[in-house]
Write a structure and sequence with these properties.
Structural class: mainly alpha
Strand order of the largest sheet: 1-2
Strand content: under 5%
Oligomer: single chain
Radius of gyration: 24 Å
Shape: globular
């Protein structure tokens, strides 16, 4: 009989596993349990089984929030990936590369509340600093006066959603550029030189050499961007409060409203589980798709 030797190196994982279990696994199990309750957080919980999920699937407000979330993701995610690639390529090897990357990463270090207040102060349709500047520079009788105005995003859902998209890109673009730039610098220059010797043009070298080698970085940004887009909440909460007319009520804000304004924590927990399943499913599908290609 062969006895396996105990490896004390596994003991080094125990602190990390304990933290993961306490702050990851246990809250998840609790949310699953809450989703089977009719509970306000103040009264005693009443078990209802899967009733919250059945109600959720028949709730028009939930489906509207899901659609707004997918709209937001379909606009934000391709823009985030494309801008990260374009800016990283444009900055590669430039003398001002470090300075520009530092400026792009700076919004991610600013407190979200302060950033939201700054954006609101700058882009308020009627009293914002940008609109005031436009009024000062353009005469009222000018043909441009009716065109060069800040869109009324506080009254039009389309412009409100674009405002949240722009805020999200402004905050996270620097992170995407750093990820792509780090991968670019890891590509051996000898591969590009070999492609040039074989007669490849710079565009062909980027298409057939550089971009395939950037696939792991793009896959990583795709998965992270999907999670950020589907679980977006803070920008909506600080800038638009889900309005106007529910045009920016993403699932994250829907969960906040149901749980902490309507005091239906069990129902909010069920919506959280659905959002988590949607996020994991889409992220996994995207990662598999990128690997197969």
């Amino acid at each position: 009989m062969v006895r396996r030797k105990f490896k004390p190196s596994w003991l080094g994982l125990l602190p990390s596993l304990a933290v993961l279990a306490v702050f990851g696994l246990y809250p998840f199990v609790e949310v699953v349990r809450f989703s089977t309750w009719d509970w306000s957080g103040l009264s005693a919980p009443r078990p209802v089984g899967l009733a919250n999920y059945r109600e959720l699937l028949a709730d028009p407000a939930f489906w509207h929030s899901l659609w707004v979330t997918l709209e937001f993701a379909l606009i934000t995610l391709p823009s985030f990936i494309a801008l990260s690639l374009l800016v990283a390529f444009a900055l590669e090897g430039q003398p001002y590369e470090r300075w520009v990357k530092g400026l792009l990463f700076l919004p991610g270090l600013v407190t979200l509340s302060a950033a939201a207040v700054s954006w609101y102060t700058l882009l308020s349709p009627e009293y914002g600093a940008l609109q005031t500047l436009l009024y000062a520079l353009i005469p009222e009788d000018s043909p441009l006066a009716s065109w060069l105005v800040v869109p009324a995003w506080d009254r039009e859902p389309f412009w409100a959603l674009l405002l949240v998209v722009a805020f999200t890109l402004w905050r996270y673009l620097g992170y995407g550029v750093l990820v792509v730039s780090a991968s670019l610098k890891g590509i051996p220059r000898s591969l590009l030189e070999a492609a040039w010797v074989d007669g490849a043009t710079p565009r062909q070298a980027v298409r057939y050499v550089t971009l395939p080698l950037l696939r792991p970085a793009v896959t990583f940004l795709l998965v992270v961007g999907t999670i950020l887009a589907l679980q977006s909440y803070v920008a909506v909460f600080l800038l638009t409060r889900g309005g106007p007319f529910g045009g920016t009520r993403v699932l994250g804000y829907f969960i906040y409203e149901v749980g902490f304004e309507q005091y239906r924590l069990g129902y909010a927990a069920a919506a959280t589980i659905v959002l988590l399943a949607l996020t994991l499913g889409l992220a996994y599908a995207q990662a598999r798709f990128m690997e197969e290609r």
